[in-house]
Amino acid sequence: MTTHALEALRSALRDRAEPDVRIQQMRVLRPPEGDELLGVRVPVVRELARTHRELAWEDVDALLRSPVHEERLAGVLVLAERMRTARGAQRRVLVDFYLARTRCVDNWDLVDGSAHVVLGPWLVDGPEDAPDVLDELAASSWLWDRRIAVVATLALIREGRYDTTLRLVRALCRDPEPLIHKALGWMLREIGRRDAPLLVAFLEHHLTDLPRITVRYATERLPAGERARFVRTR
């Protein structure tokens, strides 16, 4: 049984759908068969999630399990909004709810809009089981679990804590999926923005193990000559 609040959010999403945006989304997201796209701009979905952050847990679950892409996006963004003000045990409740439904987080935009802002603050808190949770995600056969593990560490990077990310890069550098290669490169680039010597040292030590696309992403902000050295070698 759906609530009035959930129906209001669903109606608002449909009211804000744009055919031209849907065409662009189809090209960029390449949704699987059965995934319905409305064509709602991400900032619009984000604002709707902000105004509906008090949805019942059952309604958030219904959003995450919806065949409509923007409804699933709204669901993860509601969790992200709640995590911004959650503390202590509240964070663990949100994390457990999210982890139990990662099969619903099934495209790169859903992962990238949620992993570092739902799992991230919890990781920063340093719970004892955080490494095990990330390792389990990284070892999953589900592509999006593995990307969640990597992208979630952006929160740690922003705190100047790089070891977890570098460990996952080493663990996933042989992953068969280009979307993982790109995520690894993205996180390495974020480290390099804050500590370029560390990035250079890591690349020099692990260059031959890293996919070419990872190296290209990782070195985007390095000086042109240094970037060319790494890209050319790889």
Automatic annotation (TrEMBL):
Pfam families assigned: DNA_alkylation (PF08713)
Entry-linked InterPro entries: ARM-type_fold, DNA_alkylation
Name used for this protein in its record: DNA alkylation repair protein
